[in-house]
């Protein structure tokens, strides 16, 4: 039988009351099939909770109701607190995190990933992501070693290597990273000229900044490890960009002229060295030739002297002929002074030799026979002109 059936014979309702009719519920207008009043049910529940937590059941009805209400509220609050404490005692760490546990503000231990427990209100857990790569960027104007101003953008990537130091040793690790990065960058930029920073020296500058920044982070005990440091951009300030471009163009022209001069030198210097070496070789050959000729002439003179001592006349005649031969070989024109005449005779030997059908035309030299024939022709020519001159004189004498 249901607890709310009419007649009061059913079992007690959930609030501990017999089903004795509608008048007992404080509602005379309801039928027997209506559910119990909500306010009455709430009061019954509060009464039960008050009894559980030591509520006073004595006194009049009004005081009893007030006591039941206060005790019920206290019980609900206690239940809520207990539930919250239970939920707060359980926490979860994923695979990327490590939990730094503090008990009453003092470091206790480091928890690994998984489902963990703690004492509520006593233990505090600081989760630290140890695998995530974090980034920090700065953009500042800085003074270089040669007293120029450049704008530098620096990007740093790092991860947490020691979660205890990251969580406890430094109050604000990210802000510390930015300050340390700016300090390291200013130190390295201030020790470098502007041109390498703007052109080919960025990689070297980034490596120096990385080493110095990691040293700062280790000394500050931040527990952070740098994975990459990159100079994203480096440029002169916008106010002086036009002048800077002119300077860069002038430097490029300078480099171009230097390269052209080096190329010209590389082509001229070997050629000049080759000519110098050739002249040296020619000088050595000339030296050896002259020395050999002088030695030969000396030996020839000694031999000729010996022959002269044996036959002076023959040797003298031979020397004369050889000398005339040598002179005629080198001369192409001969001037002959005729005895007893006023005219100077001109003999074109080059033309005479050219008209002679001898071996001179083919061999390029004059033999002894050619010289003899040439001498005969010269003598005949001299005699003919001399006879002509004599005839002219006799005619004038008559």
From TrEMBL:
Compartments it resides in: Membrane
Transmembrane helix found in the keyword field: yes
Membrane topology: Single-pass membrane protein
Segments passing through the bilayer: 70-91
SMART domains the record matches: PHB
Ranges of Low complexity composition bias in the record: 16-33
The organism's place on the tree of life at top rank: Bacteria
Function: HflC and HflK could encode or regulate a protease.
UniProt protein name: Protein HflK
Main localization of the protein described in the UniProt heading: membrane
Entry coiled-coil feature ranges: 240-267
One GO process term, biological-process aspect: proteolysis
Lineage: Bacteria, Pseudomonadati, Pseudomonadota, Gammaproteobacteria, Oceanospirillales
Keyword Ligase: no
Subunit structure comment from the entry: HflC and HflK may interact to form a multimeric complex.
UniProtKB keywords: Coiled coil, Hydrolase, Membrane, Protease, Transmembrane, Transmembrane helix
Domain Band positions: 88-248
One family name in Pfam for this protein: HflK_N
Molecular function GO labels: peptidase activity
Family in the record: Belongs to the band 7/mec-2 family. HflK subfamily.
Gene (name only): hflK
Organism from which the protein derives: Bacterioplanoides pacificum
Chain positions covered by the region annotation Disordered: 1-38
